[in-house]
Amino acid sequence: ATERAAKAEANAAALSDEAREMQRQLRARPTAEAHAALRDELRAVRDAQTGSKDLAGGGYGNCSSGTEGDGGGAAATSAADSATDGAFASTAAEALVAAGAASAAGQMVQPLLVAEHRRLQSQMALLRAKLTEREDELRAARQREKELSAKVDEQVAAISSLEDSLLTQHSTPRDAGRTNHTLADIMQAGDSGATPDGSASGGHDAPDHQGAMLRIVCQQRERARREASALAVEVKGAREQVRALQAASRRLQGDNLALYEKVRFLQSRLESKPGGADAATHISISDESTEAAYKELYEEKMNPFAAFHKRERLQRYSELTPPEKLMLSFSSFFLSNRHARIFLFGYMVCLHLLVSGSMYSVTHRTRC
């Protein structure tokens, strides 16, 4: 429960960080209000350009009516007004083109920003839902932890009360026999499901503390049985592992002995070549104790006396007759097998008793 609570807290913290990061990104992005302000500014620029054009047109009309009587001055004024009108017209056209481009760009970007904003809002809602779910799991895990802690405290208190009760009962010499009898009855009642008096576990004759003691003793017995079963499984696994390791050790020892034989063979071949004593490469094992151990095993394997004894044994066995070979095989089997020796001993004892009984019976009958 503690691990689940810690995991839920970590998930909640991660989701909170992710939600804060998304909120920061949303605040950094341009909103619909910013686009509306940009459109208002563009509209104001467009209105200002239109007002400038109107003012230029009015000034041109006034200049034309004031200089109608003068021929040379009127021509010059008309040319200047035409140039001014063309300049204002080109400036207004450029402003309108820029305003149209900005408006088109704003209209193209606005749907994308709105869609992105909606997507981020939906993702934030999902993350908030996940955060709420993780917080609920965290609260449930904490509640479960509290319940388990309370249960453990209750069991510890019950065990302490049981120990105090047992110590109190054993401290009184005159109640020692009654206490032992009560504990024996409790153990028997745990197997049969009844109280020490033979009634049901919830009988009115038995005291309440005896029922509580019975339940506690039964729980302790079941826990001891479970622990014993678990320990038996662990011991069995350890024994199997030990056997496997022993087999692997024997196999590795044989492999190492074979490698040592190959090393000795290579050394002998290199030394047997012309000039081998000078040109031979020294082959050795880094650990001297390991090399000495395998050297001893190799020498025992290559012991001429052992090989001689083996050849002599095989020769003697081949010289035996078939009955002698059969007797030797049976003797080796019975001497090497413990169960076979026990069976042979029992068979001989039974046969001896049978023969003795038969002889006694025959002797008794002949006398009668």
From TrEMBL:
Coiled-coil regions listed in the entry: 117-151, 221-255
Domain CASP C-terminal: 142-364
Skewed-composition ranges (Basic and acidic residues): 17-34
Stretch list, region Disordered: 1-34, 188-209
GO cellular component term of the entry, any: Golgi membrane
Domain of life: Eukaryota
Protein name per its UniProtKB record: CASP C-terminal domain-containing protein
Taxonomic source organism: Chrysotila carterae
